[in-house]
Amino acid sequence: MAPAPAKPLATAQALQLWNDPVAVVCQVGASLLGRAGLFSVWQALELGGAMKCLPGVGGSRAALLVGSYPASGGSQRQAPLDVLMRAELGPPGAGARDARGQEADVLCRVAVRSTSHVLNRAIVQAALDVLCDP
């Protein structure tokens, strides 16, 4: 399913959608935590333009991303599905230390919500694919 261009989502719509999200916690791959830091993580979660980061909404170590996906099925054209994704990185220095005394990988919690559970799971899987090193 090809994503529709990201569009702004009204606050009331966003709050209506944000119930019972599909959520995961993963370790962010070292390749994303280079010199660009958080910017690289948020950019990767835009999934090639399918999602759009709302600046200033998530906080200093979190981001809220929105997107819209076309609904399929049936002979009638349906309204696109609005999707919210919130990503939160663990605080700096809160990670465990490895055997060499260096800070372990940074943890990230990703939660996705739309009116389609199947779409939620697909977007969470795509987020895991871009955040985690193979």
Question: Could you explain how this protein is built, in words?
Answer:
The protein has 134 residues and is α+β, with helices and mostly antiparallel strands. It is 22% helix and 25% strand. A hairpin with a 7-residue loop joins strand 2 and strand 3. The two termini are 24 Å apart. Residues 96-101 have low confidence and may be disordered.
Task: Looking at this protein, list some descriptive labels.
about 130 residues, about 25% strand, alpha+beta
Helix content: 10-25%
Structural class comes to alpha+beta
Q: What is the β-strand count?
A: 5
Distance between the termini: 24 Å
What's the rounded overall pLDDT mean?
79
Query: Which H/E pattern describes the elements?
Result: HEHEEEEH
Taking the sheet with the most strands, its summary is:
5 strands, antiparallel
- What portion of residues belong to β-strands? 25-35%
Indicate the overall shape: globular
Order of the strands making up the biggest sheet: 1-5-4-3-2
Question: What is the number of helices?
Answer: 3
Low-confidence stretches: 96-101
Return Rg in Å: 16 Å
Summarize the structure.
The chain contains three helices and five strands; from the N terminus they run H-E-H-E-E-E-E-H. The chain is an alpha+beta fold and 134 residues long.
How is the secondary structure organized here?
Elements: H1 11-17, E1 22-27, H2 38-45, E2 51-54, E3 62-69, E4 81-89, E5 107-113, H3 117-131
Antiparallel strand pairs: 1-5, 2-3, 3-4, 4-5
